[in-house]
Amino acid sequence: MDLLSDRLNRIKPSPTIAMTTRAAELRAQGRDIISLSAGEPDFDTPINIREAAKAAIDGGHTRYTAVDGTPSLKRAICYKFSRENGLDYAPSQVTVGTGGKQILFNALMATLNDGDEVIIPAPYWVSYPDMVLLAGGTPVIVECGLEQGFRLMPDALEAAITPQTKWLILNSPSNPSGAGYDRAAMKALTDVLMRHPQVWVLSDDIYEHLVFDGFEFVTPAQVEPALKDRTLTMNGVSKAYAMTGWRIGYGAAPEILIKAMAKLQSQSTSNPSSISQFAAEAALTGPQDYIRESRAVFQRRRDLVVAGLNACPGIDCPTPQGAFYVYPSIKALIGKTSAAGATITDDEAFANALLDETGVAVVFGAAFGLSPHFRISYATSDKQLVTAIDRIRRFCESCN
């Protein structure tokens, strides 16, 4: 009898975490490593949020809470959805988890049966397909290349839907590409979904506030209110408020789904950290100046990185609408050889050679379902980014 389950063998470790771990190991060995692999803001959590957490500790709010969130945090989430997205939810339609990843995981585990299909546009966040597989579902990957601006087109969505389709996962702005769907593009997709009432929508809005150049963020249930009764709108505080380590994500959906997700959570992690929930409430209801200030920094860094990468021979880097990633193509470098003799057979070989020869850690495009690309997170200092881009440029110049 094998110790490990067949279900576990369906999935693989997160490639982004693997690259971040390898970079840390090389740094511990004394190498000069610049890691651009992790999707984590480099800013401190705003002070009003930290103070709220301290007050929660001093106030004795250190015990178990309701399984899927305190009533006051759920009310704050309802207020956020109403204020920012024009979506009205009752607290009974809201769930809070240990990070956005748990919200996604709970939803898929609570709803998928063997053979149910989930449409996932590629490039995608690395965890989507593995979560589907772990839940017994079948990922249906729809490639959305550079020519489509890394966005799912309505005809491609229509072609991917079958009688077995249960979910569409949509992430705007996207990790890894930073591509966003404006109102017209989103409406074109929701028009397709209205013709297929069996398909639910999982809208991952975690990068909602990180949009640039006046881009207007919209979410599916906001654009097409008739979809609200079969949409899970997911968000969290990790990216917008630099709270990655606080581990709070949340979602809103019809009550039947929220209750099912709470049932699952009651037998897994139970409630998220009580202190983190108080901090998240302060984030959602307190001053929002931090979002505007951090967004300006990220837009400046985006422009720096896009310009720098496009000056590198063999790299084509489009300008993203949001998030804090770029997803450049290395199509012109495939088949070339690096200065140290590594053959660039694919984007994984590129990422490995780049790390070995220059100390710059990026994530290869195959991890996100679309090659030949790589992802850079520019959620780090300007100084680090300038140095990293210079190393990448010299690496590309040495390839022949």
Automatic annotation (TrEMBL):
Cofactor(s) the record lists: pyridoxal 5'-phosphate
Keywords: Aminotransferase, Pyridoxal phosphate, Transferase
Molecular-function GO terms, alphabetical: transaminase activity
E.C. number(s) listed in UniProt: 2.6.1.-
Reactions accelerated catalytically: L-aspartate + 2-oxoglutarate = oxaloacetate + L-glutamate
Pfam families: Aminotran_1_2 (PF00155)
First-tier enzyme category under EC: transferase
UniProt KW Ion transport keyword: no
InterPro entries hit by this protein: Aminotransferase_I/II_large, AspAT/PAT-like, NHTrfase_class1_PyrdxlP-BS, PyrdxlP-dep_Trfase, PyrdxlP-dep_Trfase_major, PyrdxlP-dep_Trfase_small
Homology family: Belongs to the class-I pyridoxal-phosphate-dependent aminotransferase family.
Protein name listed in UniProt: Aminotransferase
Source taxonomy: Bacteria, Pseudomonadati, Pseudomonadota, Alphaproteobacteria, Rhodobacterales
